[in-house]
Amino acid sequence: MDIKLTSYEKEILLGKHGEARQLAMEIIVKTARALGAGELVEVVSVQAMAHFGSLHIAGRDWLEKLACMGGKCSVPTTQDPASIPFETWEEMGYDREYAENQLRLRDAIIKLGELPTWSCTPYNQGSVPRFGQNVAWAESSAVSYANSVLGARTNRTPAGFAICAALTGRAPKFGLYLPENRMAQIKVTIEAGYLNDLDFNTIGIILGKSMGNKIPALYGIEQSVSNDNLKYLGASAASSGSIALYHIDGITPEAIMHDPFHGKKSEGEFLITRKMLDETAASMTTKFPDEPDLVVTGCPHSSPSELLKISELIEGKKVKPGKGFWIFTTYETEGLLRRMGILQKLEEAGVRMMVSTCLVISPLVGSYKTLMTDSGKFASYLPSEHNVELIYASIEDCIKAVAE
Ligand code: F3S
């Protein structure tokens, strides 16, 4: 299939903008052909991945090769979490060879001009595309947030491919870049009374497991829903299934501007009840009775308001000897909370801040066998990733279980 290219895109393909961009454009054009895309879209930002836990040696060599070729990003490019906490990996006992590979990846992305944000929440770090703008984001929870909450457009960009989009500012025009592929297909009604924070994770788990590749439109969520809860809903739906876009009646941009079904009939209806939420939440726990060694929270990375809530809940308590409590977050949130004096209090209580990293794409260090989390995405991945037992519960219950 012939791809329609602009004169700038043709120049890149001819090597007029450097060898690395030329190689990236060749890959993009070949991919576009394979996907049946007739042209490319211009993307305003990229969210890329350079975690050694997923990219391995081949991915490290790929990024180093592009850096050696003089490649430079042409659009702002943020970075998913790394496979080690950069500041504490030695003290925590991460394997040196593994860490050194991650450090090489860090050097490569900095040479390429990527922003070393190391987080799955780029939208909390200043990368906020406007409604209708195209981006090429990789991390599935961020993809869901960009499409659903911000109304931007992106497919789930493969890790090794995101750098091609970053170097050229282009991606094949297919899938969710096309407005006709963004309309809702299934009507989901939530009749469950008051929804707490954990419920939004559980709604995501239910959607991921039951919608297949259909786009849901949700009815029954209050206007006051927080962005953090939408973050969790999308992350859980993307990890327990493959949902990259959802609409919420009257709340998400495309369901404010028009009927999410674009006047078409829903292909089906689905009801989420309180009973279903509670049963699904219980089904995520793999160990009874629930005796955790380690609480992990911040998947996607915790925001300042979540850390403030945890600091209130843990006030006057300490993590019990032999137990752990890890919070995954960004450098920015950590710095903000440190300036407030809150972080010091959390650390005094025995909480460990895990900055710049993620437990799913890094080894679990320490002798922890039973983990407890309030995150639907951690709950979906951790038992198989780390061969551990898992307890899924609210943050209030997580704190009660390991601190006194
Ligand atoms: Fe972020 Fe890792 Fe969770 S990348 S969304 S903390 S699995």
Task: Set down the secondary structure blueprint.
Layout lengths: L6 H7 L5 H17 L4 E3 L3 E3 L3 H17 L8 E3 L9 H4 L3 H16 L24 E2 L2 H11 L8 H10 L1 E3 L13 E6 L5 H14 L5 E4 L7 H14 L6 E2 L4 H5 L10 E6 H10 L10 E9 L1 H11 L9 E6 L1 H9 L2 H7 L3 E4 L14 E4 L2 H11 L2 E4 L2 H8 L2
Parallel strand pairs: 2-3, 2-4, 6-7, 6-9, 7-8, 10-11, 10-13, 11-12, 13-14
Antiparallel strand pairs: 1-5
Helix pairs in contact: 2-7, 3-5, 6-9, 8-9, 8-11, 9-15, 12-14
Description:
The protein is of the alpha/beta class and 404 residues long. The chain folds into three domains: 7-179, Aconitase, domain 3; 183-283, Rossmann fold, CATH 3.40.50; 294-402, Aconitase, domain 3, CATH 3.30.499.10. It has helices at residues 7-13, 19-35, 52-68, 89-92, 96-111, 140-150, 159-168, 197-210, 227-240, 253-257, 274-283, 304-314, 331-339, 342-348, 376-386, 395-402, and strands at residues 40-42, 46-48, 77-79, 136-137, 170-172, 186-191, 216-219, 247-248, 268-273, 294-302, 324-329, 352-355, 370-373, 389-392. The protein has a five-stranded parallel beta sheet, with helices on both faces. Helix 15 (376-386) links the parallel strand 13 and strand 14. Helix 2 (19-35) packs across helix 7 and helix 6 packs across helix 9. The mean pLDDT is 97. The protein binds FE3-S4 cluster.
Keywords summarizing the entry:
single chain; 404 residues; alpha/beta; Aconitase, domain 3; Rossmann fold; 3 domains; four-stranded parallel sheet; 42% helix; 15% strand; binds FE3-S4 cluster
